[in-house]
Amino acid sequence: MEKFDCVVVGAGPAGLSAALTLGRARRKVAVLDNGRNRNRVTQESHGFLTRDNIKPQEFKDIAIKDLEPYPSVSISNETVQEITKDTETNLFLVTSDNKTYLTEKILLATGVQEEFSLAQIRQYYGKSLYSCPYCDGWELRDQPLAIVAENEDHLLHMTKLVFNWSKDLIVFTNGHQISDNTRNTFEGKKIQVYTDMIKSLHGENGNLESIELESGEAIPRNGGFVIPSFYRPNKFAEQLNCEADENGGIITDGFGRTTVNGVYIAGETEKVGPSSLMIAAADGFKAATGINMDLTLERF
């Protein structure tokens, strides 16, 4: 069986950045990816220096092309099914839907996925409803926007943040009550609050036009921001016995090293939360330097 220095699971900005760094360090690397990256639903990615407004797939294509000069790096479209460690050899077996890989090191960079309390949000997510004002606030500036969230702390934080881009805000809690202090804070900024249950979202081709409440009232809105919950799309970190903190984040040393020897993690996968392309790519670079240094010290 062909043996690799590192198998990178996930070809988002973290995984591809790590693969590039490891390739330049002359490490033999296999990148496995199933194309389920979280940002595939959006039309443009923002905030990555030199690549602002780029389409997510174009960003990924450019990153993959950057790997072509490095013959020790391969990338394939596969879904990893299982990762196990042989305690006698300290090597990992990575089983995908196509083949099995033998490797010294594992980098988990599969990112996270969103869950919404309102399933209909999916129809608008990435087109007129977003979760990151830094990523998409500029495009929605000065428009009539909705803030949809059920947790009061999250709601307050997001509303304060989005207020920088648009003052025309209406808050929707989808049936959840908020404190008088929070309500007074919003009213002081002329931000209306609806605590009614949301019946339906209306619009065409992913472009929001109004939010209909259970009462039948429809409030016109051109777009807005939602606060989803996030989860890892797999249990690899848990199955490999990587230690987690009280919030579910995988504990690392700052260079991707987990509490399990040979297992590294980078990007959104680590903290189970959203990240920018720029930060995820930086995390991938740091993890790659950790991997390369460990391989260097083990072999020298």
Automatic annotation (TrEMBL):
Residue span(s) of domain FAD/NAD(P)-binding: 4-148, 175-284
A Pfam family assignment: Pyr_redox_2
Molecular function as annotated in GO: oxidoreductase activity
Superkingdom, natural source: Bacteria
Keywords annotated in UniProt: Flavoprotein, Oxidoreductase
Assembly, per entry: Homodimer.
Name the UniProt record assigns to this protein: Thioredoxin reductase
UniProt source species: Ureibacillus chungkukjangi
